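Could you show me some protein's one-letter sequence and the numbers that encode its backbone in two labelled lines?

___
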Amino acid sequence: MTETVTHKETIIQKAQRLAPHIGNTPIFDVSSLQNNPDIQIFAKLEWNQLSNSVKARAAYRIITSALESGFINTSKGIIDASSGNTAVAYATIGANIGLPVTLCVPENASCQKKSALKALGANIIYTSKFGTTDEAQLKAKELSQLHPDLYYYTDQYANENNWLAHYHTTALEIWEQTQSQITHYVAGLGTTGTFTGTARRLKELNPFISLTSLQPDSAMHGLEGWKHLESALVPKIYDDKVADQNLFIDTMEAFDMIKLAAQKLGLLLSPSSAANLVGALKVAETISSGVIVTILPDHASNYPDILDHIL
């Protein structure tokens, strides 16, 4: 028993040492994308942290909470469904602390993401390309039930630590970085954790902050990581009462923004990051003054073909 406890403490200590590399991302002024001098727009550069995406925040809190609760160790690892940045975040943290990571991934996930997961030592279980991450979720849950000695199902779509990560970090960073002047918060919905957690805390800090959630405008969209909630499994952590309004974003508008952001801001954006900027600009068109903040979840480097396709 003593040996087991010591081992557990060691992996927890390894995880704790990663804390300075999670979050604490800068905000970037993107106000030049519009012409109203009384409106400022800032974007959080979320690729400036471990694993190069916003998903590091949720993955880290999910894993550390499971470690501290005794659900996982160096023998019993985690299993979850993801075809993108959460998968890479899990695998990155797992490799660093010696935690087994198994991921259920749709077989049509990008080659770059699959190669990254293999390089990081994750165990990949492929699911049908026709089932999206919805089918991958069912597979992860099934395997955790069949092999409870091997897997703890972290279930990012239902895990409260997903949104709590943003409630305790992202929102407070935005509040401090804007000197509490933020008036509008805008972000897309995927697992919904980033929007939900950040929005809830910001509303507590100032009940007059306007909260706008974003979705793709159709089920057949090209915004990886986003969900069209009417046609997908709605994450259990989603709360439709949080947003003051919801806007729908066309994929082609996001692709056009990738080109504009590269040429006008010097930022090479992913489709979801560009879509968030499109949403922020839509909000800017409806107000006469204010401070808008949005999230740039990741960088174009995570999508090696996107710039050739767009530019």
